[in-house]
Amino acid sequence: MTTIRAEEVRIPRRAREAVAHHEEVLVVNRERPAYVIVHPEDHAQSARSPRRGRPLREALSLLVHSAPPDPRFAEDLEAVLDAVGAAPGDPWPPS
Q: Residue 90 falls within a domain, yes or no?
């Protein structure tokens, strides 16, 4: 890969902002695609796999619209722990 310094090219503000938000920017020359500018993290991942997870806004929306927690949940967990007994000090001792 060839590397150039940022001061060697003029990248418009809207392109810099789009790349900062992990959006690809298509550069055209005479109405034909010439280059694609991508965020460095996305470039490294393109060889591996697409970005994982959900956008934060979508995840927060799911949480807001989810069912409220069960107030008796902690009591149920206490009952289970009392029935099972104390956990071992080291659940995976060396063999």
A: no
Residues 65, 2: Cα–Cα separation, whole Å: 47
Which residue matches tokens 């659940």?
Answer: 91
pTM for the complete prediction? 0.44
Q: Compute the C-alpha angle 61/59/52, nearest 5°.
A: 155
Parent domain of 14: 7-83
Rg of the chain over CA atoms, in angstroms?
25
Angle subtended at Cα 11 by Cα 8 and Cα 13, rounded to the nearest 5 degrees: 140
Tokens of 86: 């104390």
Count the domains in the chain: 1
**pLDDT tens digits, residue range 40-95?**
888 766 656 666 788 899 999 999 999 888 889 988 988 998 999 887 788 888 87
